[in-house]
Structures are given as C-alpha cells and as structure tokens.
Amino acid sequence: MNDKYFWIDTDPGIDDAVAILWALNNNFNIVGCSAVAGNLGLNTTYTNLCALLDYKNKNIPAYYGASCACRGTQFTASEIHGTNLGPIVIEKKYEFKEHMFQGLINWFESNKDKKLNIIALGPLTNISTFLMHFPKYKEQIECLYIMGGGSYGNITQYGEFNFYSDVEAAYFVFNQGLNIVLSDLDITDNYAYILPEELDEYVSKQKIDNWVEQLLRFIIEREFGSRRALIYDACPIVYIKHSEHYTTEEVYVDIQLDGKTRGLSIYHKNELREKGETQNLIKIKRLTSVDHKKFINLLLDSFVL
Q1: Under DSSP, is residue 141 helix (H, G, I), strand (E, B) or coil?
Q2: CA dihedral defined by 60, 133, 15, 164, rounded to 10 degrees?
Q3: Cβ neighbourhood burial of 129 (10 Å; 0-12, 13-18, 19+)
Q4: What is the DSSP track for 222-256?
Q5: Vertex 253, ends 248 and 257: CA angle to 5°?
Q6: Strand 141-147 vs strand 180-183: parallel, antiparallel, or unpaired?
Q7: Using H for helix, E for strand and C for coil, what is the string for 212-227?
Q8: How far apart are CA 63 and CA 97, in angstroms?
Q9: How does pLDDT run across 115-164, given as a tens digit for each residue?
Q10: Which tens digits make up the pLDDT trace of 70-86?
C-alpha cells in the first residue's frame, strides 16, 4: 500500500465519511483529497472533508472542485445525509483555498515518474472536467476506483445517485480508456451493509470510534424501510486493501444518457467479444460480491479504540 499513491475525490456525506476515516486508519498513502457537490452542496462537502482530516490530525491537502454538474444542474440527498456531517455539527469554518485542478497538476508535474490511483466516491464532475482540460495526465493514472452506477437505480428506477447527478461526466470518464474498477449499488445492497443488530453486537464487545458509530446509527435511522447502514463508499476502499475477499468480473459497460433509463449502467458479458460487438463499449472490472460478515469485521475492526 505504501508504494501506491492515492487521491480521494468525494462528496461527504455519511458513507463517504466512514470510507475516508477507514482509509485514514489503514495507512493509505493519500496525497490529496478533493470535494465535489453531490450528497450535499460544495460548501458543506468541502467543510466535512476538511473536518474529517482534522479529526484524524492528518496533514493532507484538501481542495475544492465543482459546485454543480457539467450541465449546471444540482440536487442533493440531504434527506439521507442531513445538512451537516450527519449527526455531527461542524462548527469550524473552512474557506476554499485551492482548486483541485491545481492540486492534481502540481502532483503530476512533481511526480512524472509515478502513477496515481484516484478513488471517486461522488459524482464524476471533478474527474471529467479535469480530464477534459488536461488529457495528457491520463497516462499517469494507474487506476480509477469508482463508486457509482448499478443495474437499477436509487434516485429513479434506473438512475443511481452519483451517475444520475452528472451522467454526462460519468459517460465521459468511462470513455477515456482508463483502468477502472467499479463498485456499484448491487454489491452494497447485497453484501456491504450493516444491520442495527450487527452493529449492536459488535459494539457490545469493543468500543469503536465515536464519530463512526454516530454516523452508522444516523444512516440506519435515515434508510427509510431498509433499516440498515448501506456503506456504499467504503466498499471500493476496503477492496483496495482486501481484494482477496471479493469476487469480480470483467464486463463491458454502457451508461445510458437519456430518457427514463438515464444513469443506468448496462453490463455486457465477455461473450460479446466473440461476436465482435464490443467496439463501442467500455471494458471495466466490476466488484460483484464480498462476504458480508467479513466485510463488517474488516470495516469495524479498523475503528476499535
């Protein structure tokens, strides 16, 4: 892990916060983080990002990015994430300092012989606009880990929040020839969640980080109907360190731009290769499963005090 360099682009958000804290506790070599509008507005996501880094006493540069989607639209998920950092009120004021474009340019120019792994946990607006303006740096991106998409939606019947929020950005990024690992709705909904009784059992045996427990209990209360903490953004980050506990598949993906299926990820299997039908599709690695109990332990063990 220490020989790899990571950049986290995020819109915290509760599950983003848990994912970021997990990465900070697991010695990821994070060279920078950037905030994007998504779960909440940019002022809030940037504030939450800075507060998370301060909470862990990490001197990692934080940058601001896009305040709206490529088309200029914006909507949030405050009904799930609240208006602050879930139940945690951040009182400190954080002013924007430097745009993420400059942060990435500085790193790439100072490390021309190195590769960067980007973990994208929110809408892909920041990543897409950076690549539009500075395509030459694509060669220095080792892998792009993305949370987004799915074979169904959670905002509309077909649209997952991150992709639906800026589907043009997602479509552009997936068409840049990058090495992409995708963690979508399907794997989290089926495997990467915590039930309230599972959390209760775990914390009855050992105390965990106060912020993390608050965040998990908050999202359980906000997940109307399901009553479980869906940790979407932690799923790809845990995979990076513990890939042996996951199953994956290589698929061709087609992101729908228009109509009622806007934001949908349509997956095609490798058998299309034999038919010569893959020329207009993008090949990626998709995370398909993780042992549920193992995921809970891998996640929570890192927060034991």
Answers
A1: strand
A2: 170
A3: buried
A4: HSTTT-SEE-TTHHHHHHHH-GGGEEEEEEEEEE-
A5: 140
A6: parallel
A7: HHHHHHHHHHHCCCCC
A8: 7
A9: 999 999 999 999 999 999 999 999 999 999 999 999 998 888 988 889 99
A10: 675 666 655 665 667 88
Edge-to-edge strand order for the sheet containing 265-268?
A: 62-64, 30-35, 5-10, 116-120, 141-147, 180-183, 282-290, 246-255, 265-268
Structure-token pair, residue 191: 């495997």
Two tokens, residue 100: 């993420």
| Assigned token pair, 69 | 């989607």
Burial of 152 (0-12, 13-18, 19+ CB in 10 A): middle
Distance in angstroms (rounded) separating the CA atoms of residues 265 and 154: 13
C-beta separation of 287 from 148 below 8 A: no
